[in-house]
Design a protein that fits this description.
Blueprint: H1 2-16, E1 17-18, E2 21-22, E3 27-32, E4 35-39, E5 51-54, E6 57-63, E7 66-71, E8 74-77, E9 80-84, E10 90-94, E11 97-101
Parallel strand pairs: 4-10
Antiparallel strand pairs: 1-2, 2-3, 3-4, 5-6, 6-7, 7-8, 8-9, 10-11
Length: 104
């Protein structure tokens, strides 16, 4: 019985912990345009990928309380503007706190 429980737990972890989604840590990752993005406190087994909404516009909504929009390198998270991004800057949304780190 213990072996079955252990095997089931391992299978659940493998299903929820892909390259872009770590269910145990509650973290999802994706590349939005040229920007690596990580969102914490997001416990989803599957996440829709970012989508391009215009020539230089992208939207990423991994969780119902995290909506990232990048339009002409301007970052908006949950309706709040965070300024201009440089190419390859990384974005972290950690429990609602937004951080941008230089990609250069």
């Amino acid at each position: 019985m213990k072996a079955l429980l252990l095997l089931s737990s391992a299978g659940f972890c493998l299903c929820g912990c892909g390259g872009s989604n770590n269910l145990l840590l509650g973290e999802v990752k994706a590349t939005v345009g040229t920007h690596p993005v990580a969102v914490t406190d997001c416990y989803r087994v599957s996440v829709d990928p970012p989508r391009q909404t215009g020539q230089a516009s992208y939207e990423y909504v991994p969780c119902r309380d995290a909506r990232l929009v990048i339009s002409n390198e301007q970052l908006t998270v949950n309706g709040q503007a965070y300024g201009k991004l440089n190419p390859h800057d990384s974005i972290l949304v950690d429990h609602g706190v937004v951080s941008v780190h230089s990609g250069n």
